[in-house]
Batch of 3 targets.
Target 1
Amino acid sequence: MKIAKDKVVSIEYTLRDDAGTIIDTSEGREPLAYLHGNGNLIPGLEAQLEGHGVDETLKVAVAPADGYGEFDASQVIDVPRSQFTGVPDLAVGMQFTASGPEGQRIVTITKVGLETVTVDGNHPLAGQTLNFDVKIVGIREASADELSHGHVHGAGGHHH
């Protein structure tokens, strides 16, 4: 069986940045299970897995546009420190949920000043090439529930 739309795929992976630093890995955990062709993975990785089979290993480089997007400087803004009432010890790296015209998003503090706090609304991996080492460890038919929900249930997937 080959990876195709609506197949449940299980992969082991390691994600590195361009310097070779590990960003994420499935090592020591269950393989990641996803429903192929349903937007459960970043588009660039999913596209490069299409058509491959169990026990295949791949090295996949995903450009920012096919990963978490290009870095958008307009998403880095200064906000009044008063917007963070109830948080006495603001620090670089803290993350908060912010509401805006496009809905809710996670923002990360990048600078703390006396009067303002700089937050970045970009995904932390925006603008980066993502380098994956992937081993395909399973492919199966999706259940009717998985197809109707658009994601995998059970081991390596979503639990309701």
Target 2
Amino acid sequence: MFSLSPIKIMVIVAVILLLLGPDKLPEVAQKLGSWWRALKNIQERVETEVRQAIPDLPSSGDLARLARSPVNLLNQLADRVDAKETEAATTNEPVTDESPLIVRPAPAPSTPREPNASTPPDPSMN
């Protein structure tokens, strides 16, 4: 795959310096800086709008940390459940979990569905 070692990066920078020369280098650096600033402003605006729409969303640093190490997220969730269970055991209350990170499956329907007479049977069921 494509990997950049420090030596390769120095060679690329040296070639760019030779190609641009001392007269064009400040202009190019200024354009790159303005583009970078514009990208950062766009990122901040998007993050602000998302935070207004979803106020309970964890910070972007927390999300990046969770994406890098999902095992830590699972450990934190397990610790929360353990803490709630021990708290419920001491107070004799049922355990309820209102955490938005845990997805529970939908309950099964109480009555079995009858096949519709207007739909043909599935040929893969033969």
Target 3
Amino acid sequence: MLSPGILIIDDSAEMRNLLERVLASNYHTTSVSSGAEALELAPGENFRVVFLASRVLRKEGLPILDSLKSLHPGAKIVAVADHPGDPFLQQIKNRGFYAGIYKPFSIKEILDLVREVLNQPY
């Protein structure tokens, strides 16, 4: 099993590439474009942080979130939304996601959030 890492699930290649560039110099990162891809590789990994685009959840449904939580119960799920008023975030608020981050966000916000999560007990 690999060291604890970060999973990025976003249907936007641009967003996946941005998050990987920001995080890959300090952390093990894996990125995929769909929840189905994430579930295929998740059992062989040890993810501590999962960045999950709210658009992916809207397209693929809440079972993706539930499955990720089941495979990685200690992982902190961070929903990445287009704006703070995204109604989907309200629907998933009680389903075990750790935090929401909204576009546009700064590199500092991402790094601070990851440090916060990794400093917590697993």
